[in-house]
TrEMBL record, chain A:
GO molecular function, one term: GDP-dissociation inhibitor activity
UniProt main location, coarse: cytoplasm
Identification of the protein by name: Rab escort protein 1
Compartment(s) where it occurs, according to its Swiss-Prot or TrEMBL record: Cytoplasm
GO cellular component, one term: cytosol
Biological source species: Arabidopsis thaliana x Arabidopsis arenosa
Segments of skewed composition (Acidic residues): 549-561
PANTHER family, A to Z: CHM, RAB ESCORT PROTEIN 1, RAB GDP-DISSOCIATION INHIBITOR
Automatic annotation (TrEMBL), chain B:
EC number: 2.5.1.60
EC top class, as a word: transferase
Function: Catalyzes the transfer of a geranyl-geranyl moiety from geranyl-geranyl pyrophosphate to cysteines occuring in specific C-terminal amino acid sequences.
The UniProt record lists the keyword Transferase: yes
Subunit structure: Heterotrimer composed of the alpha subunit RGTA, the beta subunit RGTB and REP; within this trimer, RGTA and RGTB form the catalytic component, while REP mediates peptide substrate binding.
Organism this protein belongs to: Arabidopsis thaliana x Arabidopsis arenosa
GO biological process terms held by the UniProt record: prenylation
Residues passing through the membrane, by range: none
Name of the protein: Geranylgeranyl transferase type-2 subunit alpha
Amino acid sequence: MIDLPPYPPLDPSNYDLIVVGTGVSESVFAAAASSSGSSVLHLDPNPFYGSHFASLSLPDLTSFLHSNSVSPPPPPSSPPLPPSNNHDFISVDLVNRSLYSSVEISSFESEILEEHSRRFNVDLCGPRVVFCADESINLMLKSGANNYVEFKSIDASFVGDSSGELRNVPDSRAAIFKDKSLTLLEKNQLMKFFKLVQSHLASSTENDDTTTVKISEEDMESPFVDFLTKMRLPPKIKSIILYAIAMLDYDQDNTETCRHLLKTKEGIDRLALYITSVGRFSNALGALIYPIYGQGELPQAFCRRAAVKGCIYVLRMPITALLLDKETGGYKGVKLATGQEIFSQKLILDPCVTIGLESLSSLTDQENETISVLVPKALINKEKVARGICVIRGSVKADVSNALIVYPPKSLFPEQLTAIRVLQLGSGLAVCPADMHVLYLSTLCDNDDQGIKALLSAMSNLVRLPDPKNQQSDSVVENDTCEAKPILLWRALYVQQLVKGEFGGTISSMPSPDGNLNYNEIVESALKLYEQLMGSEELFKEETSVENTTEENDDGVDIED
Amino acid sequence: MHGRPRNASKPEEEAASAAKAVQLRSLQSQFMTNHHDKIYTNEAIELSTKLLEINPEAYTAWNYRKLAVEDRLARIEPDPNLVSAILDEELRVVESALRQNFKSYGAWHHRKWVLSKGHSSVGNELRLLEKFQKLDSRNFHAWNYRRFVVELTNRSEQDELQYTDDMINNNFSNYSAWHNRSVLLSSLLAQNADGFMPNIKIPEEYDFVHSAIFTEPDDQSGWFYHLWLLDQTLNVETPLLTSSWPSHGSSIILSGAGCLSGSSSMFTTFCSESGSFPLILYFDQAVGGVSSSTVTIDSELKGNEGLVWEPIPNKNSQVSCVWVARLKYVSSDPCEYKVKIRVGNSPGIVSSRGYNFNAPYEFVFTAHVHDTVEDSQEGIVSWTDGFDIWDAKSKDLNSLVTLDRLNAEMDFKWRQEAIDSEVECFGILPDSKIGKLTLARLLMAREAMVSDDAVKGVHYEEILQLYNDLMALDSSHYQYYKDEHSKAFLHKVTSSSESLSRHLLRYRDMNNLVCLRLNNLSLSRIASVEKLLFVQMLDLSHNELHSTEGLEAMQLLSCLNLSHNRIRSFSALDSLRHVKQLKVLDVSHNHIGKHSVDTTRYLCSSPLSNSELGQDDVGKQNPGLVTKYWDAYCVLRDLNLKQLDIAGNEIAGEEFSSFVLQVVPKLVWLDGQKKLGN
């Protein structure tokens, strides 16, 4: 921060909004606000777009994780300054909160990786995909951000267990028909259940529901897992529906450890999302799609949209302090790392930006009130998400490149409390060199050890470490008769804190990446903030009329076949 | 392309379509002028292109183009480039017409016509089809055309089978794909292509279609294919002889007109006025070519060389399941003859599907010719009195009833196994109508295949229960289930001598004639007739029969009770015309005459179909009555009835009674009244 190159002062120095951080929620918000006519300054301390949603090369990813991880508190190079009082403002210093812990990065074939290191686009918050019917897709179409991203489909989805076998997820009529592992009766029961859901959904959209079957109100309020049992679905199918289609995390059969017992109502909504995703785009194979060049493309697309509407972008620009009005204690602006002071009506911050606790004591009540959303709260919910990234040679399943794999709770080991999701992506998505794949793993956990243990268990189920003796000659490895698991070349393990967004009157803090597979909750928080700050102003209204007419034909999202 | 709701058109759309109609009319009239004047200039052809682009259904325009192409081809140099330019243009027009209307018969036909000129690469056509079939995977025009194109090439049937695999995997609700699959498989199985043995392939196909049926039992396409597979499993191609009368090893007693006195338990007695007795052959499928050369008779009965075999019921038809010949004997001359019949000794008996009867079968019986004691009493036959219980222990029945196929079939094993595994499979399909129906059909098939007496007949109760359930579940197909129920019931009755003997009685007044009593069983259909060829007296009263179809094979039948059934016209009794022995008929208390046209039958005869109507004496004397009672007239004049009961029908009355007495002069008893003056 200190060695920043000289930077010309920003002009103008007054904005409606300052947004710090270019994660998905900040970028969606910036695009929406610019589109409705607000003047926005969008800053990011990093040299790249996306913040915690970025896709990076292996070295960049490594250094980002290390620099944002909990290490022994950095020795204060200079004693924390008391809020300075130079001008008409009180300046409150900001500090960075670390989102990551237990970061462990190992490379098993450094030479090969170094050779290709810049050909990787590795996601920081994987595994993450988009459902074709996601709200985020609608938002992209509405805003025109879809013009900057291309998607490809995820070819297959599997359910795994400790045996190492990956079974197809029968998620459509054709998939059920083709499935080899389901018995005839199971095919019948599963399809019957899908039809019930479809009929229920049809009856809730059209009101003349005299003939269609509807799920009773009572059932809608009951736990989804009980409803599935009531529908006489066998355990195997229940598990597929709960964890590989509804994408639940917690063991729904274990009331003690289950943090979120899903109601039937919510379960049906999740199935509806899945069902409507399948076949939404004629050239998407299944329900899920992924952006070429990595998910970092998504926040970037919204940023570009915002820039078109007049939003000003400055990367590599941290803010160091908040400026508060001396009289009222209200928010006035921020101080940039360059020392320049910039003013705005409102401020939206990345979840990492907080106030040092020691600064608080010297502030007045009003000032404390203004910055309250930035004060780190004692975490009530200690929930975290453990993430893992593997670069592998080969694929976890022959003939399949891009695939989602779910290990339901207890499927790998008896103490496994949460589902583990694994996403394999290949060079077709321009995220890694040919003949390699990137695997992303995640699972929710209460502590680092528990999360890392679960991830390692899934990894050992899918990949093998290169045999040190045979490192040179691959031919020996291939002669091995054991089923050819792909070879692990590089691995990152880390645990990410889950920070909720907090919306204040003038200063708001955005949430950290969540533990979900898609972006819906993240996008939702951006829209909620938009509503709160902009009132009833219509979202992307201008684009709606212009863009939609030209894009109706291919439904906007470019998906190659 | 399917399941799209029809929307009422908006005013602006109607205006647009009106404008289009005006344009079309003007194009049409210009085009017709060109066509009439045989103008094949470029402008004229261009006009027809325009017309077809708007309306691909203009068949005349397609024909015009054919003429134009022929005309141009005749006038140009035989340069292949010029020829192909002309034909390419035709293909292009067809393609754009198909984009307009994928289901245009004229366009598809035109394309075939161009291809038949030896033009366009087949690879192109397949690529085009692939594109069209992606848009509408079920369109039968495209599938038809596909078969046409494939036939032009050496593309293997295996490849095409793989294509149906892909289409079905994509969406299994595709009748066209399943149908094409059955066509291809039939052909591959018939050729005995590599890996296409029925005993391996058919079970594989069952597995394949199960996934479709179980995934969505409400989708009919898979069920249709399943039905086809079941048909392949059950149908043995080569025709077989099912039963005969007299049966192998039996001995029959023949006598002249009237009844024998003194003979005791001889239900094998057959009385005939004409000095001949019927020889009945019953095949499992319709066959042709039954004649004195394919069926040889070896006996001392004189005068039976060059025997005439007739198919029943239709004399003029080439094929039938039932064939009858009449053997002559001399009744004045009591003695005993051994008769040996050889069926299919020399080739010539061929099934309607072209398969040869290739399992020659030989059977032997003994005929005792008895003296006639006296002429018949002409007493009235009562259906209520004079019956004795049948002695169930009697062994005589066994020799009468030849059960099951007479010839053993070699590849029965896989068929039985296939049916067994199907039964097991559908036993678990939860309640669905089609599931129950299929299970019932499978169980029937299993019964038909079982040869082991120990397990024979164990499924009938379940089958009957399934049909009862179906009748309750699905009232719109009630009558079908009812008919199937009747068939199953009759199969059950005839499945063993024990069960059959429960329905047998002796009729004292006619020399202990055996009477089969199937009354009060709510039967709506007659079945299992092949096992009842020996029956001479049959009581079917108090059932729900609509017709006597099937009874024509029972050539020995002399007394038939059909009272209290649902017969609606004399045409429904048409099959009885072939039962020459029939003397006593009770059709009282039916619905004859209630409806002028019998709508419950598929084919109704009418006065118009009987051109010779009224050509005989009765017709000349009473043309009015013959016209009024034409259906009764057509049936009754061919019968030699002595006793008829008609009371309790709408048609009955004095006028009709007097008409009957004219048509059947030999009648002695009418509605229990002895004819006067006779």
